[in-house]
Design brief:
By secondary structure, the chain is an alpha/beta fold. It contains eight helices and 14 strands. The longest helix has 14 residues.
């Protein structure tokens, strides 16, 4: 029997045994589940600033975990080896929610404050993230998401009470940019707005030459963010040739500086990334 996935705006309609666009969610036994549940491809203790989160427990570390799959197709993806992968394309190992929380607790002596779901798009593994976040909260650990924000409002609102902070990618401030990556700007804006009203949120925008480097686009973006809160930190990151976009040069440093100057007219905290 066909079932519709209710996590992201793609709302893939899947036959029994079929996997969705994200390569992680599937129809199994008449239910949509994350096929990548507890399947970990990457695990590392990172500085919190690497997420990047600059104004959430600075100086601390966080256990960072990734799986495989993503519901976007960014041609400039920096983690394409796992984000564009399925279960047969990349090595993984199973780590249950209970085991992951125990690992995080054991690292407290090394400055660990919790668990960050990152590297690939964590919300395609929604159920795993949810189960881990509930256990982490009960153990007094922080939960952090590094996400593209392509999530529907209902599952997002159900998860947020168990999340402490998120860095949300805002690929650009036009649907043209989102057409290039296979996403929906309004969905991401809603996710940012809902999260900013409930948890600590920082936003990252990668400045891709010829795609997301327009001054007027940045002016509109920071005006909208400031309408939520002038204190939402914005990371303006420099593009380097990656994945299927290796035909463009890195973003000129002057462009990053100009866009940061525009952002600082509206926002209190603006950071230049990859510079």
């Amino acid at each position: 029997m066909k079932q519709t996935c209710g996590i992201c705006p793609r709302q893939c309609v899947l036959e029994e045994g079929q996997t969705g666009f994200c390569r992680a969610r599937e129809n199994r036994g008449g239910r949509i589940v994350c096929g990548n549940y507890a399947r970990v491809t990457s695990l590392a203790l990172d500085p919190i600033e690497k997420k990047p989160l600059r104004r959430f427990h600075p100086g601390s570390n966080i256990l960072s975990v990734g799986s495989y799959g993503c519901n976007l197709r960014c041609p400039f993806c920096q983690n394409s080896a796992i984000s564009m992968a399925g279960q047969n394309d990349v090595p993984w190992r199973e780590i249950s929610p209970e085991e992951l929380v125990l690992k995080a607790q054991a690292l407290r002596r090394e400055g660990n404050i919790g668990i960050a779901f990152t590297y690939n798009e964590p919300l395609v593994g929604y159920e795993y993230v949810f189960d881990c976040a509930k256990l982490a909260k009960a153990a007094g650990l922080k939960t952090v998401l590094v996400t593209n924000g392509m999530v529907l409002a209902d599952p997002w609102l159900e998860l947020l009470p168990f999340v402490d902070a998120a860095n949300i990618d805002l690929k650009g401030f036009s649907q043209t940019v989102y057409d290039a990556v296979g996403g929906d700007l309004e969905t991401v804006k809603t996710a940012i707005a809902l999260a900013a009203a409930r948890i600590h949120v920082e936003v990252t925008t990668l400045i891709v030459p010829g795609l997301s480097d327009g001054a007027e686009q940045m002016r509109a973006q920071v005006s909208w963010l400031a309408g939520l809160s002038k204190n939402i930190p914005l990371h303006i990151s420099r593009f380097f040739p990656m994945y299927r976009m290796q035909d463009r040069p890195p973003t000129p440093l002057g462009t990053i500086g100009k866009l940061a100057d525009i952002a600082e007219e509206s926002l209190t905290y603006v950071y230049k990334g990859n510079c």
